[in-house]
Every structure is written in structure tokens, then in C-alpha cells.
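Retro notes, item 3 of 5
We never archived the inputs for the protoporphyrin IX containing FE complex last cycle. Fixing that now. Sequence and ligand:
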Amino acid sequence: MPAPEQPSFERDVRPLFRELDVDSMSWLLDLTQRDQVAEHADSIVTQLEIGSMPCDGSWDEEQVALFRQWVAAGCPE
Ligand code: HEM
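Structure as it came back at the time:
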């Protein structure tokens, strides 16, 4: 049986961020850049889990789970 593919930043995580997210968060980090998202991964997970980010409505549980999986896999590119 093939091993389950691990999530990738470019293919799976990057598309979760809308232009609004990227623009709104540019004061803190660039959500289009894997290294910066990886650096802030813990606080991003916290915000997603408590539902305070994005500011205009929280993510579905599947989206949060995908982001968590990406972090658990070591934030692969
Ligand atoms: C998936 C999208 C987003 C992510 C992952 C994200 C992530 C974060 C993170 C990690 C912080 C820092 C929280 C802390 O540690 O104190 C933050 C703060 C903040 N974000 Fe976002 N954000 C997103 C979208 C947005 C959007 C759409 C808006 C508004 C249009 C927004 C507005 C803000 C503001 C105003 C703060 C400062 C809040 C405070 O310090 O009280 N963010 N966000």
C-alpha cells in the first residue's frame, strides 16, 4: 500500500490563504512564504484553533487539521 502523501506548502497550505489574509497579515508575516509561515506555525495553529483568525470567520475543521498535519510533518515545502 502506498504511504499517505504528506501535505506540501505550495500545493496544500499556500492555497488556504486568501489575498485578504496575505494583505491583512503582512505587518506580521508573509503568508505566501513557507519559511515565515513555518516560523510562526505555533501561534498560527493557536489562532486557527481558537477561531480568532481569520478575523472575518474561522476555518473549517478540515482546513485546521490540514494545517496541523503540515506542521506535524515538519513544514515541508
Ligand atoms: C488564515 C488567515 C490568518 C492567519 C493564519 C492569521 C494569523 C495571525 C496571527 C498568528 C496573529 C498573531 C496573534 C498573536 O500571537 O497575538 C494575528 C494577529 C492579527 N490578525 Fe491575523 N491571521 C489571518 C487572517 C487575518 C485577517 C483576514 C485579518 C483581518 C482582516 C487579520 C487581522 C489580524 C489582526 C488585527 C491581528 C492583531 C490582533 C491582536 O493582536 O489583537 N488576520 N493573525
